[in-house]
Amino acid sequence: MKRLMILIFSALLISTTYAQITSSKTKHDEIVISQNIAVYQLFPTQNMWTFLQLNTRNGRFTLHSTQNIYTFILLDQLDGRTWQVQWALEPRDRFIIQIK
């Protein structure tokens, strides 16, 4: 009887320890996955020294280049709205306007 009780106690202890290790590993994997989500994306321009940085936290917007090296189209991938994005070296020459 004593052996049976020790065997049952050992089995319970081992299964509890294994469950804690597995649970801890799963939580760690979830944290690592959530930390690897890219927030910003770089879009190349025709100027090899210049990239445009776009906050893609919610994943809804993307930039598309045009034949004009300073003009891009910003697309809302959920509802289809578009904007003309004008890039320039001088901040006063930059603008974004919605395309209708």
Write the topology of this structure:
Elements: H1 2-35, E1 40-44, E2 51-55, E3 61-65, E4 71-76, E5 82-86, E6 95-99
Antiparallel strand pairs: 1-2, 3-4, 4-5, 5-6
**Molecular shape:** rod-shaped
Distance between the termini: 83 Å
Beta content comes to: 25-35%
Write down how many β-strands occur, each being a DSSP E stretch of 2 or more residues.
6
| Tally of structural domains | 2
Mean pLDDT: 79
| Strands side by side in the biggest sheet | 3-4-5-6
State the order of secondary-structure elements, H for helix, E for strand.
HEEEEEE
Helix content: 25-40%
Uncertain regions spanning at least 5 consecutive residues: none
Structural class: alpha+beta
Radius of gyration: 27 Å
Number of H- or I-type helical stretches:
1
Give the biggest beta sheet: 4 strands, antiparallel
Output the keywords.
rod-shaped, two-stranded antiparallel sheet, 100 residues, four-stranded antiparallel beta sheet, 2 domains, alpha+beta
